[in-house]
Design goal:
With 262 residues, the chain is of the alpha/beta class. The chain has a five-stranded mixed β-sheet with strand order 5-6-7-8-9, with helices on both faces. It has a four-stranded antiparallel β-sheet with strand order 1-4-3-2, with helices on both faces. Strand 8, helix 8 and strand 9 form a beta-alpha-beta unit. Helix 6 runs parallel beside helix 7.
Length: 262
């Protein structure tokens, strides 16, 4: 048995048909779109070298078109060393075999394409997750600026999901750097609403449990008005208008000082 000329896509079928020697048995079977019973000694030519090698000594050769999705995508050849070995009943049976083979091949290709697309989607998801991790890290970096003092700028928006990661990172860095003061700089926040303000207060409360003071800096005037209007209670959380004043406050709390070199 020899399987020849099966294409994965319809456009590839057109290209392969155009490249087939027009007098070859494969081209004839595909063009006829019906089974052909052939005496190889009479009908094979130089274009059928691979077919001849696959069925050396055959006296009867049956070519059956393989149909998938309404089009011929290849051909199946079977050979016998007996002459006139294929009767009408045999041909009907072989057509059913070819139909089953075409379906199996098409299903295998469909599974292969689905597997390729699944792999591509998984790679895209992994890349997206990696990008999201990078964005999250860049949107809330931790910068040690002095002994016992950390700065955590918040860029973008603060929702419940991000708040959880933010607090986790905050507590980890406090423990790692033995920080006493953490300056949470919200200058770069896209929007400060009541929910975001509440999440920042929760972060300050969590920091206090580790003995560190969270200081909120960079609150815009519009955000301050909103917090008052919404009744957001920042509790005992210290606030400063900008990072520079927050740094001076933190240095005073930790006994540090700014040294200017001439």
């Amino acid at each position: 048995m020899l399987l020849i000329g099966v294409s994965a896509r319809e456009e590839a079928v057109v290209e392969e048909r155009a490249s087939l020697p027009p007098r070859s048995l494969l081209a004839r079977v595909i063009a006829a779109d019906r089974p052909l019973v052939i005496d190889p000694a009479e009908h094979q030519g130089p274009e059928d070298g691979a077919l001849s090698r696959g069925h050396a000594g055959a006296r009867t050769l049956v070519g059956l078109p393989l149909r998938a999705r309404g089009s011929v995508v290849g051909a199946l050849f079977l050979g016998s060393q007996r002459s006139a070995a294929c009767a009408g009943e045999d041909l009907c049976f072989l057509e059913r075999v070819a139909g089953t083979a075409a379906v199996a091949i098409e299903n295998a290709r469909l599974f292969g394409r689905i597997s390729e697309r699944t792999d591509a989607l998984e790679r895209a998801n992994r890349q997206q997750e990696s990008m999201l991790r990078t964005i999250n890290e860049l949107s809330s970096p931790v910068v040690p600026i002095a002994d016992g003092i950390l700065v955590m700028p918040v860029v973008g928006t603060m929702d419940a999901q991000r708040s959880s990661r933010f607090i986790e990172s905050l507590l980890r860095e406090i423990d790692e750097h033995d920080a006493r003061v953490v300056l949470i700089d919200v200058t770069g926040m896209a929007m400060m609403d009541a929910e975001a303000a509440s999440q920042l207060v929760r972060a300050a409360q969590a920091a206090a449990l580790l003995g560190a003071e969270a200081v909120l800096v960079g609150v815009a005037g519009s955000a301050a008005r909103m917090m008052v209007a919404e009744g957001v209670d920042v509790g005992a959380m210290t606030t400063h208008v900008d990072l520079a004043r927050g740094v001076r406050y933190a240095l005073a709390k930790t006994g540090g000082r700014i040294v200017y070199k001439g």
